[in-house]
Amino acid sequence: MESVFSSINKFSGFTLLFVFLLSCSSTFTSTEAYDAVDTGGNITIKWDVMSWTPDGYVGVVTIYNFQKHHQIKAPGWRLGWTWAKKEIIWSMVGSQTTEQGDCSRFKGNIPHSCNKDPTVVDLSPKTPFNQQISNCCRGGVLKPWDASSFQLSVGAAGTTNKTVRMPKHFTLNAPGNAYTCGPPQIVQPTKFITQHKKRVTRALMTWIVICKYS
Ligand SMILES: *[C@@H]1O[C@H](CO)[C@@H](O)[C@H](O)[C@H]1NC(C)=O
Ligand SMILES: *[C@@H]1O[C@H](CO)[C@@H](O)[C@H](O)[C@H]1NC(C)=O
Known about the structure:
Layout: H1 2-29, E1 42-53, E2 56-66, E3 78-82, E4 88-93, E5 95-97, E6 119-122, E7 147-155, E8 168-174, E9 177-181, E10 185-187, E11 191-193, E12 200-202, E13 205-213
Antiparallel strand pairs: 1-2, 1-13, 2-7, 3-6, 3-8, 4-7, 5-6, 8-9, 9-13, 10-13, 11-12
Bound molecules: 2-acetamido-2-deoxy-beta-D-glucopyranose (2 copies).
One 2-acetamido-2-deoxy-beta-D-glucopyranose is lined by residues 42, 44, 66, 210.
C-alpha cells in the first residue's frame, strides 16, 4: 500500500510542477513580461528627401517600429518636431498636422501648416486611395516590425543638400507611452528598388532619428 501512495504523491508532484511550468510560460508570453527584454528595441524615424522643389523639397517620412513586443495602438502615434527656420508644409499625403497654425502671411496658395512645431497624425484606413501613399493610413496603429509612411512638401526650406536644414526636437507619443527621441543624424541616402527590380533610385539626402521607450 505504501508504495502505491508514494507513487500517487509523485504523480501529483509532477502534475503540480507541470501546471506550474505551464503558468510560467503563459506569463512569459504576455507582453508585460517582455518589457525588460524590449529595452533594446527602438522606433526609428527615417526622413528621405526625394526631390527638390522651387522653394524646398518633397520628403517621405517613415516610422519603423523596431520593438519586438510593443504595438502602438489606436488612436495611434503622434509625431512632432521643431523646424530649424521658417519652413512650412505646403501639402501632405497619408497624414495630416493637427493644427494649421498662422498662415496669414500667405496669399493665394495657403500651406497645410505654418506651425513652427507641427504635430503629425496618421489618416484613417478609409482615406480615398488617391490621397494615400504606400504604408500610410492605418489610424496610427503600428505593429512590431511594421512601418508607416507619409509624404510632405516642405517650403521655405533649403533646395540643396548643403542648404536644407534638419528639423530639431523630435517627439513621439503613443497612447499610454512617451518616447524619448535623439537628434537627427545624416545617414547614407536610402536606395529604392523599383517594382520590377529593374532599377535602383536614391534619395537625395536621408537622416534618421532614434526614439526609445521611456
Ligand atoms: C534600432 O533598432 C534597429 C533594429 O533592431 C537596429 O538595427 C538599430 O541598431 C537600433 N538603433 C539604436 C540606436 O538602438
Ligand atoms: C550632397 O550631394 C553631393 C553631390 O551629389 C554628394 O556628394 C554628398 O554626399 C551629398 N551630401 C549629403 C549629406 O547627402
